Amino acid sequence: MLLIDFELRGEYITLDRLLKATGLADSGGEAKAMVAAGKVQVNGQEELRKTCKLRPGQVVQVHGARVRVIAGA
């Protein structure tokens, strides 16, 4: 499984932007389609909200990859 630590620069990042920023989706449209299709989990629960706000400590899983959102410096 691919493990990615994503350093957050602000208060939050939306789910679709996180997928694009980490390279798990090639475009914003692809990211939104992945979420809409039920392929994405946040903290172990299926997430269908494309613009779900993610904050430090949350974990996103998709396509055998796990992204941990961590606080930026």
Automatic annotation (TrEMBL):
Record's keyword annotation contains RNA-binding: yes
InterPro entries in alphabetical order: S4_RNA-bd_sf
PROSITE patterns noted in UniProt: S4
Entry keyword Chaperone: no
Keywords for this protein: RNA-binding
One Pfam family from the record: S4_2
Designated name of the protein: RNA-binding S4 domain-containing protein
Annotated organism of origin: Caldimonas mangrovi
